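Researcher: We're reviewing a set of sequences before deciding which ones to prioritize for further study. For each one, I'd like a predicted 3D structure that I can look through quickly. This is Universal stress protein. If possible, include the structure in token form so it fits the rest of the review sheet.
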Amino acid sequence: MKILLAIDGSDYSKAAVEELSRLSFPSNTEVRILSVYENPILATPGIAPLGGSLGGYYEEVLSNAKKSAEENVKVAARQLQNKNTNLSVSKITVNGLPKMAILDEAETFGAELIVVGSHGHGAFKRFLLGSVSQSVAVHADCSVLIVRKPNTEEKR
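Model: Here's the predicted structure for Universal stress protein, in token form for your review sheet.
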């Protein structure tokens, strides 16, 4: 079985890593951990270069985003391998739009299952922001497991 685990370092993706680490899989299961870092100019609405130099700011932000993504997949891989030594784990980081990059990597990898965390936005926020997990679930050619972060607040 081939599983693509898409993470972004948030508590929601940490919940997805934890959930996946608790599940049992056949001994030949491959898990590819993907973290997508976005172009900081494209990821920040209203910010665009107007000419001139940003003094290396853009390159530094992109470099930091890449390093963070690499650290996220490294930590997730360690956690998965510590809990299930039968898993074959690979890591990948890419620059792009998360919705598209996840679907592209799932197709390239031949994923039979995509695992993502859900930020749990309400319907209005989902409409305004778009939902990576929702988009992946609708457009993926394979099954998608959307993991919600457990609510740790006491219900009143």
